[in-house]
C-alpha cells in the first residue's frame, strides 16, 4: 500500500523530473520551437474545432490549456498535445446525436464529455493500465482514422463548393446531400478552394516548417476579396466570441453521464492510443525513457482541467510533435511556450477571423483529412496479413456505415477474436536436422523435404498450450501420426510454448501415458523457468520422469537415440542425427 501511495504521489507531484534539465540553452531552443508551433496551430485549432462542431475559439483554447498541462505532467520531452483530427471527428459523431452542433446544449455536452474523458484517462494512468494499450491492434487505428477522414471530408465538401446542406449523418448521407445540391455550387467558392489548396501544396514542397495553413488562409482571403467576397456569395466566419477562455462548469446529471459514457470511452481510448504511440515513437528516436502511465495521467489531468476552460478533448498531435522536434525542442517547455505565444497571438488574430472565407477553411480541413489516411500502411497491411486486413476493413466499413465510436469497439472486438484464434492455433511441426553453414540446425521436415528418423519423431509447438489450443494441437499430432505412423520415441520441443495451463498439462500427461501404454517413449524439451515450474506444479515431471525432461535438443536426442532399436539402426540409411554414429550400421 505504501509503495502504491508513493507511486501516485510521484505521478501527481508538480516537481517534474524534466525540470532539472531546463537551463538557459534549452530555454532558447524551446522558445524558438514554441514560436514555430504556435504559428502552425492557429489555423489547425480553428479547423479541428469546426470538425468537432464547436466554435473556432474552442480549438484554440484546447491548443493552449490542454497543450500546456499535458506537456507539464506528461512523459514525453517533445510531444505537443491539443486538438486532433481523429478525436474531433469522434466528438462530433458522439454529440451530434444529442444536440445540434454549435448550440449552447452541444457546447455544454462537449465540456461534460471532455471532463469524463479526463477522468477515465486519469484513473487508467493511476491504475497502471498503460500496458493494455499495447494489445490494441494497429490496424484498428488505421481503419478508424481512414473512416474518420472520410466523415470529415464528407462534412466539408459542401463548404468547399459553396453548397449549403443539412449537417449531421454519416458519410453516405452527407455525400448524398452534396450530390443532390451539386448544381447549386458557387464558382467563386471553388476558385477560393483551389487557390487555398495550391498554396498549401506549394508551401509544403518548399519547407514543411513554413506555416502553410496560415499562408493558404491569407491567399484564400485575398482571392475572396478580389472576387467580391460576400457579394459573390462567399460565406465568411463569424468573429471569435472571446479571446480568453472563460471559467465553465460541466454538467453532471446522471442522464447526461449515462448517455455520453460510450462516447467518452471511445474518445479516451483514441486519445491514449494517439498520445502513447507518438510519445513512444519520439522517445525511441531520441533514446529517452518513456513512462506510459505517466503520459496517461498527464493527458487525463489536461482534459479534466481543460473542460473548465472552454476546451474539448485533446491528445498528442503527430504533426505538431514532429515540427517541435525538428525545430530543436529540448524539453516540455517548448510546448508550454507554444501555448503562451498562441494565447498572446489571439489578441492580434481574433479581429481578422471575420475575413476568412468558409471555402478556404473547408479546403484546409479536406487536406487534413486526406493526410490523415495512411495509404502506405493500408497497402502494407493488405499485402502482408489477412487477419490484420480483416481488422482494418471491419473497423473502416463499420465507421463508414455506422458511428465512429461503435467502429472502434467493433475493431477492438475483432482484433481480440483474431488474437484468441491465433492463440488457439499454435504452430505444430516435425523437425529434422540439416546443415546450414557447417552447423546442424533443425528445420521443418515437411516444408524443407528433409529425411526423418524411422524411430524418433521430433515435434515442436510454437505458441501457448492452454485450454483453447489443446484441441488444435491434438488434431495436429493425430494428423502427423496418420500420415507418417507412430514411432518408437517422441521428442516434444516446448521451448516455443510460453504458457501451459491445467488443460495443457493434462494433454501432455495423456500423450505420455498413451505412448508408454503402446510400448513407446516420450521426452520433453523445456528451458523457460515458467514452463518448468508449470510442468512440476501440475505433476507432468513426476509422471514423465526427471530423466525424460531435457533443457536442450542435443540432450533429448542423445537420450532417444541411445534407446533406439539397434536392429533397426543397423538397417537404417537415413542416420540423420550426429548421435547415430554411436549406433550399429549396415557396414559394421
What does this structure look like?
The protein is α/β, with parallel strands linked by helices and 588 residues long. The chain is built from 23 helices and eight strands. The protein has helices at residues 2-12, 24-51, 56-73, 85-95, 104-126, 138-161, 171-180, 187-206, 212-227, 254-285, 292-306, 318-326, 333-349, 358-372, 375-384, 386-401, 404-423, 470-484, 502-517, 529-537, 540-544, 553-562, 566-571; strands at 80-82, 315-317, 427-436, 439-444, 456-462, 489-496, 521-525, 549-550. Strands 4-3-5-6-7-8 form a six-stranded mixed β-sheet.
Instruction: Report the span from N to C terminus.
Output: 72 Å
Q: Can you tell me the residue ranges where pLDDT is under 50 for at least 5 consecutive residues?
A: none
User: How does the major sheet shape up?
Assistant: 6 strands, mixed
Q: How much of the sequence is in beta strands?
A: 5-15%
With helices defined by DSSP (H or I, 4 residues minimum), what is the helix count?
Answer: 23
Strand order of the largest sheet: 4-3-5-6-7-8
Please state the overall shape, judged from the principal axes of the Cα atoms.
elongated
Q: Work out the radius of gyration.
A: 31 Å
What structural class is derived from the secondary structure elements? Answer: alpha/beta
Say how many strands there are.
8
Helix content: 55-70%
Mean pLDDT equals: 88
Amino acid at each position: 500500500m505504501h509503495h502504491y501511495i508513493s507511486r501516485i504521489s510521484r505521478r501527481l507531484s508538480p516537481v517534474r523530473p524534466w525540470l532539472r534539465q531546463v537551463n538557459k540553452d534549452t530555454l532558447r531552443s524551446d522558445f524558438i520551437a514554441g514560436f514555430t508551433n504556435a504559428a502552425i496551430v492557429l489555423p489547425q485549432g480553428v479547423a479541428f474545432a469546426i470538425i468537432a462542431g464547436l466554435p473556432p475559439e474552442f480549438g484554440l483554447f484546447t491548443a493552449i490549456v490542454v497543450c500546456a498541462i499535458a506537456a507539464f505532467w506528461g512523459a514525453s520531452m517533445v510531444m505537443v498535445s491539443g486538438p486532433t483530427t481523429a478525436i474531433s471527428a469522434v466528438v462530433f459523431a458522439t454529440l451530434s446525436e444529442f444536440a445540434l452542433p454549435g448550440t449552447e446544449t452541444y457546447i455544454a455536452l462537449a465540456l461534460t464529455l471532455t471532463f469524463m474523458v479526463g477522468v477515465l484517462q486519469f484513473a487508467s494512468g493511476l491504475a497502471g493500465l498503460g500496458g493494455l494499450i499495447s494489445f490494441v491492434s494497429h490496424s484498428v487505428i488505421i481503419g478508424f482514422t481512414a473512416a474518420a477522414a472520410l466523415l470529415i471530408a464528407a462534412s466539408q465538401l459542401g463548404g468547399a463548393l459553396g453548397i449549403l446542406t443539412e449537417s449531421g449523418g454519416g458519410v453516405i448521407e452527407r455525400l448524398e446531400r452534396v450530390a443532390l445540391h451539386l448544381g447549386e455550387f458557387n464558382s467563386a467558392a471553388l476558385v477560393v478552394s483551389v487557390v487555398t489548396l495550391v498554396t498549401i501544396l506549394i508551401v509544403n514542397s518548399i519547407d514543411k516548417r513554413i506555416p502553410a495553413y496560415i499562408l493558404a488562409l491569407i491567399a484564400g482571403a485575398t482571392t475572396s476579396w478580389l472576387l467580391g467576397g460576400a457579394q459573390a456569395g462567399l460565406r465568411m466566419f463569424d468573429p471569435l466570441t472571446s479571446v480568453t477562455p472563460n471559467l465553465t462548469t460541466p454538467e453532471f446529471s446522471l442522464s447526461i453521464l449515462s448517455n455520453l459514457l460510450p462516447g467518452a470511452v471511445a474518445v479516451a481510448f483514441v486519445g491514449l492510443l494517439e498520445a502513447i504511440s507518438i510519445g513512444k515513437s519520439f522517445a525511441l528516436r531520441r533514446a529517452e525513457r518513456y513512462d506510459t502511465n505517466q503520459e496517461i495521467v498527464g493527458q487525463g489531468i489536461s482534459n479534466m482541467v481543460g473542460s473548465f476552460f472552454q476546451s474539448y478533448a485533446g491528445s498528442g498531435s503527430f504533426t505538431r510533435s514532429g515540427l517541435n522536434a525538428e525545430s530543436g525542442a529540448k524539453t516540455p517547455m517548448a510546448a508550454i511556450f507554444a501555448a503562451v505565444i498562441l494565447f498572446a497571438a489571439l489578441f492580434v488574430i481574433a479581429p481578422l477571423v471575420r475575413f476568412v472565407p468558409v471555402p478556404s477553411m473547408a479546403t484546409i480541413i479536406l487536406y487534413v483529412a486526406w493526410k490523415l489516411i495512411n495509404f502506405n500502411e493500408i497497402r502494407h497491411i493488405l499485402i502482408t496479413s489477412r487477419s490484420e486486413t480483416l481488422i482494418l476493413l471491419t473497423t473502416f466499413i463499420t465507421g463508414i456505415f455506422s458511428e465512429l465510436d461503435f467502429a472502434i469497439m467493433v475493431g477492438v472486438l475483432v482484433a481480440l477474436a483474431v488474437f484468441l484464434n491465433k492463440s488457439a492455433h499454435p504452430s505444430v511441426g516435425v523437425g529434422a536436422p540439416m546443415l546450414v553453414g557447417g552447423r546442424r540446425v533443425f528445420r521443418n521436415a515437411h516444408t524443407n523435404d528433409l529425411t526423418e528418423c524411422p524411430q524418433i519423431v521430433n515435434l515442436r509447438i510454437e505458441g501457448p498450450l492452454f485450454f483453447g489450443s489443446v484441441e488444435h494441437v491434438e488434431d495436429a499430432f493425430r494428423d502427423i501420426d496418420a500420415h507418417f505412423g507412430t514411432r518408437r520415441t517422441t521428442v516434444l520441443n516446448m521451448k516455443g510454448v510460453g504458457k501451459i495451463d491445467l488443460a495443457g498439462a493434462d494433454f501432455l500427461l495423456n500423450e505420455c501415458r498413451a505412448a508408454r501404454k503402446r510400448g513407446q517413449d516420450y521426452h520433453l524439451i523445456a528451458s523457460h523457468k515458467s514452463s518448468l515450474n508449470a510442468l512440476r506444479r501440475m505433476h507432468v515431471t513426476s509422471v514423465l520422469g526427471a530423466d525424460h525432461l531435457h533443457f536442450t535438443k542435443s540432450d533429448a536426442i542423445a537420450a532417444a537415440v541411445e534407446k533406439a532399436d539397434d536392429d533397426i539402426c543397423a538397417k537404417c540409411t537415413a542416420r540423420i542425427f550426429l548421435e547415430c554414429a554411436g549406433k550399429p550400421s549396415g557396414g559394421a
